[in-house]
């Protein structure tokens, strides 16, 4: 399993409206593989922790593609959602996968069992826009279009609700790797920060509102903490992505080029020095956080890129 | 009404045939601009002109109703049903290879064991990463210039689904022989232009053959090519500004132009060497003698023209009256006919009975000729020699050659004829034959040159 070449361990995948998923050589900007995602656009992408498969959330399905073959078609199809699947992610050991959809449901899919039984489902009242797994691996934070954040405890099935702002859709939720902060962005461009206090065994995480700021002028689409928890990146329909210092939530960098249009997704390198963005101009971009300059473009998609997945490793 | 004696109709028919059978679109381009001529012809030739001229108006640009100038693809689309059936079949095939996981609502509650097994609380651990593998390699390669053809990546059609794409087999003529035996498969989106397809090919090439120096897109042309990779050099390359869907070919050859300004220019290994006069370099220095320089320039140009003309005319047949020197040092008057294909030696018929050696007519294929050179310059005559080989090629009269050989000097495989002619004639003949040989670059010539070289080194070694 570890005899793969070094480059295989740095994986960048992008997908969007042109019904393809592309894999890139990150250092040269060359696309080395294109996978077909014929039936729908790509809503979200995530690579499994063992870097063997990539999951694409799409309309009514989640498709899994093999990263280690040249098969352009999906090898697994998770079926049964009635509307768009909006988010997808994995438990850290790859035991199960979670997904959220516009059918107002959050589902857990057992990846280990040979049977197809799905262990859990969680229903809310509005279409689910985002799902975020707490680093403790037992709590899911679910955002929906009515502006509610649900904390769902997987062990006890208890849940609790937060409403940071009425009349605003929660578009993304992020929790930093230490589990001390949670960020949520909404369609008004605002960003809310909570400090999290982990409970003892089986006690729920406590959330205390900490900060609120105007991150963008228009829809904020994605937020993500850096692996070292020092930065938060937010992306937006105002054609920018912004890097914020998590110490005082001051603006660190504005990542902007002419005509990049909506910035949909972002991912940090594991040493928190670079950040990838995916935007509607059909290009993924890599930015240096120190200087705020764009260092490379990954061009090749015919239409907007709406999702991006990146896996890095330490040296 | 159309009859075969209707000149206008016939003309129109021929034009249509040209346009409809020419996939390159050249005929169409040329003929589209001839409306005036056509109208005139119509008036003078058409015996039965249509009365309704107005109806003819929109017909002007394309004479036949089934010919639409430049608007449609030459492919006829399949019916919707057939396309849909095929799509369904493809989906069925694809899904049969896929594992399907259907969501099933779980009625029974998970047991505590299962819950404990699946949901294990973990303490968030943060491993301090000083440098990631990505950052390391990215920084390493940051100084490397980015691929100049990267902008063409978006024309890649591979993996595209709901988009018209075209697949091509591209032969790369500039690569070394062992690498170019197999064509490169390229899938390009249908809306790309020819220049963009070239860019995409170069992008692929630059990643596959990194050691070859790839030049800008404008340096290359795409030519219609046979399945076996033989480039059709009689036709011009596909117009770089045109949309690729206009051309129906799937096998194309990428050719590097030696002169990018020229539309068709192949790199031929046999090039005519033109001696540049030294005037070109010196005329920058002095302005006061510019007039004489100009004159010199003109003479140089004229000289160059002449050289060029002679090079062009070299393969054309020409006959010379020369004397052949036989073994016995006797001279026989002959006609020496030289063309790009062969050399003919024809004795001039004489009634004299006192001919010492009767020369028979000889034919030599040009592939058998190895060399031609001036041997001796006398006061009024020049002696030149044609060296040939019997081992190579096929002679039209091999017996006559073998039975009668007026050679003075024979080697294992090369024999020669000596001729005598006036200075100018001899010079012209030597030049003509040398040019032809250089152009043909036959095996005989190579062999001869190699033998000469060997002999030279042998001599050198002996000294």
Automatic annotation (TrEMBL), chain A:
<dbReference type="InterPro" id="IPR001680">
    <property type="entry name" value="WD40_rpt"/>
</dbReference>
<feature type="repeat" description="WD">
    <location>
        <begin position="78"/>
        <end position="113"/>
    </location>
</feature>
<feature type="repeat" description="WD">
    <location>
        <begin position="263"/>
        <end position="297"/>
    </location>
</feature>
<feature type="repeat" description="WD">
    <location>
        <begin position="11"/>
        <end position="34"/>
    </location>
</feature>
<feature type="repeat" description="WD">
    <location>
        <begin position="213"/>
        <end position="245"/>
    </location>
</feature>
<dbReference type="InterPro" id="IPR036322">
    <property type="entry name" value="WD40_repeat_dom_sf"/>
</dbReference>
<dbReference type="GO" id="GO:0051897">
    <property type="term" value="P:positive regulation of phosphatidylinositol 3-kinase/protein kinase B signal transduction"/>
</dbReference>
<keyword id="KW-0963">Cytoplasm</keyword>
<dbReference type="Pfam" id="PF00400">
    <property type="entry name" value="WD40"/>
</dbReference>
<dbReference type="GO" id="GO:0038203">
    <property type="term" value="P:TORC2 signaling"/>
</dbReference>
<dbReference type="GO" id="GO:0032956">
    <property type="term" value="P:regulation of actin cytoskeleton organization"/>
</dbReference>
<comment type="function">
    <text>Subunit of TORC1 and TORC2, which regulate cell growth and survival in response to nutrient and hormonal signals.</text>
</comment>
<dbReference type="GO" id="GO:0005737">
    <property type="term" value="C:cytoplasm"/>
</dbReference>
<comment type="subunit">
    <text>Part of TORC1 complex. Part of the TORC2 complex.</text>
</comment>
<dbReference type="GO" id="GO:0031931">
    <property type="term" value="C:TORC1 complex"/>
</dbReference>
<keyword id="KW-0853">WD repeat</keyword>
<dbReference type="InterPro" id="IPR037588">
    <property type="entry name" value="MLST8"/>
</dbReference>
<dbReference type="InterPro" id="IPR019775">
    <property type="entry name" value="WD40_repeat_CS"/>
</dbReference>
<dbReference type="InterPro" id="IPR020472">
    <property type="entry name" value="WD40_PAC1"/>
</dbReference>
<comment type="similarity">
    <text>Belongs to the WD repeat LST8 family.</text>
</comment>
<dbReference type="GO" id="GO:0032535">
    <property type="term" value="P:regulation of cellular component size"/>
</dbReference>
<keyword id="KW-0677">Repeat</keyword>
TrEMBL record, chain B:
<feature type="domain" description="CRIM">
    <location>
        <begin position="131"/>
        <end position="259"/>
    </location>
</feature>
<dbReference type="InterPro" id="IPR031313">
    <property type="entry name" value="Sin1_PH_dom"/>
</dbReference>
<dbReference type="GO" id="GO:0038203">
    <property type="term" value="P:TORC2 signaling"/>
</dbReference>
<feature type="domain" description="Sin1 N-terminal">
    <location>
        <begin position="44"/>
        <end position="123"/>
    </location>
</feature>
<dbReference type="Pfam" id="PF05422">
    <property type="entry name" value="SIN1"/>
</dbReference>
<dbReference type="GO" id="GO:0031932">
    <property type="term" value="C:TORC2 complex"/>
</dbReference>
<comment type="similarity">
    <text>Belongs to the SIN1 family.</text>
</comment>
<protein>
    <recommendedName>
        <fullName>Stress-activated map kinase-interacting protein 1</fullName>
    </recommendedName>
</protein>
<dbReference type="Pfam" id="PF16979">
    <property type="entry name" value="SIN1_PH"/>
</dbReference>
<dbReference type="InterPro" id="IPR031567">
    <property type="entry name" value="CRIM_dom"/>
</dbReference>
<dbReference type="GO" id="GO:0005546">
    <property type="term" value="F:phosphatidylinositol-4,5-bisphosphate binding"/>
</dbReference>
<feature type="domain" description="SIN1-type PH">
    <location>
        <begin position="316"/>
        <end position="438"/>
    </location>
</feature>
<dbReference type="InterPro" id="IPR011993">
    <property type="entry name" value="PH-like_dom_sf"/>
</dbReference>
<dbReference type="GO" id="GO:0005886">
    <property type="term" value="C:plasma membrane"/>
</dbReference>
<dbReference type="Pfam" id="PF16978">
    <property type="entry name" value="CRIM"/>
</dbReference>
<dbReference type="GO" id="GO:0005737">
    <property type="term" value="C:cytoplasm"/>
</dbReference>
<dbReference type="InterPro" id="IPR032679">
    <property type="entry name" value="Sin1_N"/>
</dbReference>
<dbReference type="InterPro" id="IPR008828">
    <property type="entry name" value="Sin1/Avo1"/>
</dbReference>
């Amino acid at each position: 399993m570890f005899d793969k070449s070094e480059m295989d361990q740095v994986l960048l995948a992008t997908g969007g409206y042109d019904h393809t998923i592309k894999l890139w050589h990150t250092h040269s900007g060359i696309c080395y593989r294109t996978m077909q995602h014929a039936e729908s656009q790509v809503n979200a992408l995530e690579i499994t922790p063992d870097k063997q498969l990539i999951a694409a959330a799409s309309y009514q399905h989640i498709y899994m593609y093999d990263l280690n073959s040249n098969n352009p078609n999906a090898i697994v199809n998770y079926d049964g959602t009635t509307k768009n699947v909006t988010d997808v992610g994995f438990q850290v050991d790859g035991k199960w996968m979670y997904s959220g959809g516009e059918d107002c449901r959050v589902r857990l899919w057992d990846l280990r069992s040979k049977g197809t039984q799905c262990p859990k489902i969680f229903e809310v009242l509005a279409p689910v826009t985002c799902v975020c797994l707490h680093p403790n691996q037992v709590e899911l934070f679910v955002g929906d279009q009515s502006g509610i954040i649900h904390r769902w405890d997987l062990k006890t099935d208890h849940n609790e609700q937060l409403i940071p702002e009425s009349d605003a859709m929660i578009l993304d939720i992020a929790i930093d790797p230490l589990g001390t902060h949670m960020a949520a962005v909404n369609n008004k461009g605002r960003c809310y920060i909570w400090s999290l206090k982990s409970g003892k065994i089986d006690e729920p995480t406590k959330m205390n509102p900490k900060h609120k700021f105007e991150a963008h002028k228009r829809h904020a689409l994605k937020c993500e903490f850096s692996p070292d928890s020092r930065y938060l990146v937010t992306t937006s329909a105002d054609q920018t992505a912004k890097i914020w210092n998590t110490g005082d939530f001051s603006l660190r960098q504005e990542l902007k080029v002419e005509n990049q249009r909506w910035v949909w997704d972002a991912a940090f390198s594991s040493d928190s020095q670079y950040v990838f963005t995916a935007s509607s101009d059909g290009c993924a971009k890599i930015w240096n956080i120190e200087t705020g300059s764009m260092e490379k473009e990954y061009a090749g998609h015919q239409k907007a890129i709406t999702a991006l997945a990146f896996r890095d490793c330490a040296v | 009404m159309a009859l075969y004696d209707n000149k206008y109709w016939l003309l129109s028919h021929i034009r249509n045939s040209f346009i409809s059978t020419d996939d390159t679109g050249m005929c169409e381009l040329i003929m589209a601009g001839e409306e005036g001529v056509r109208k005139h012809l119509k008036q003078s030739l058409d015996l039965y002109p249509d009365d309704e001229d107005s109806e003819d108006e929109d017909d002007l640009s394309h004479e036949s109703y089934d010919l639409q100038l430049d608007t449609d693809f030459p492919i006829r689309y399949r019916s919707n049903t057939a396309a849909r059936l095929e799509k369904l079949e493809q989906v069925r095939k694809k899904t049969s290879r896929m594992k399907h996981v259907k969501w099933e609502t779980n009625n029974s509650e998970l047991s505590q064991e299962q819950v404990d097994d699946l949901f294990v609380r973990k303490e968030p651990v943060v491993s301090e990463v000083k440098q990631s593998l990505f950052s390391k390699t990215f920084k390493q390669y940051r100084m490397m210039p980015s691929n100049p053809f990267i902008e063409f990546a978006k024309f890649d059609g591979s993996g595209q689904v709901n988009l018209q794409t075209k697949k091509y087999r591209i032969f790369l003529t500039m690569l070394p022989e062992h690498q170019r035996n197999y064509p490169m498969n390229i899938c390009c989106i249908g809306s790309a232009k020819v220049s963009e397809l070239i860019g995409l090919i170069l992008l692929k090439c630059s990643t596959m053959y990194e050691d070859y120096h790839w030049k800008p897109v404008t340096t290359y042309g795409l030519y219609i090519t046979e399945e076996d990779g033989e480039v059709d050099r009689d036709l011009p390359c596909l117009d770089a500004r045109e949309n690729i869907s206009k051309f129906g070919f799937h096998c194309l050859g990428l050719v590097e132009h030696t002169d990018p300004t020229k539309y068709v220019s192949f790199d031929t290994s046999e090039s005519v060497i033109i001696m540049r006069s030294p005037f070109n370099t010196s005329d920058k220095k002095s302005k006061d003698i510019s007039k004489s320089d100009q004159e010199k320039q003109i003479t140089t140009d004229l000289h160059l023209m002449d050289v060029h003309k002679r090079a062009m005319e070299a393969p054309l047949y020409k006959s010379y009256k020369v004397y052949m020197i036989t073994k016995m040092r006797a001279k026989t008057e002959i006609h020496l006919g030289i063309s790009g294909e062969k050399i003919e030696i024809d004795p001039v018929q004489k009634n004299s009975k006192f001919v010492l050696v009767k020369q028979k007519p000889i034919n030599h294929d040009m592939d058998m000729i190895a060399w031609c050179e001036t041997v001796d310059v006398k006061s009024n005559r020049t002696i030149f020699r044609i060296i040939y080989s019997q081992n190579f090629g096929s002679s039209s009269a091999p017996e006559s050659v073998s039975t009668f050989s007026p050679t003075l000097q024979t080697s294992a495989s090369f024999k020669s004829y000596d001729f005598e002619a006036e200075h100018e004639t001899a010079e012209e003949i030597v030049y003509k034959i040398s040019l032809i040989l250089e152009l043909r670059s036959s095996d005989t010539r190579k062999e001869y040159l190699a033998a000469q070289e060997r002999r030279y080194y042998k001599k050198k070694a002996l000294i």
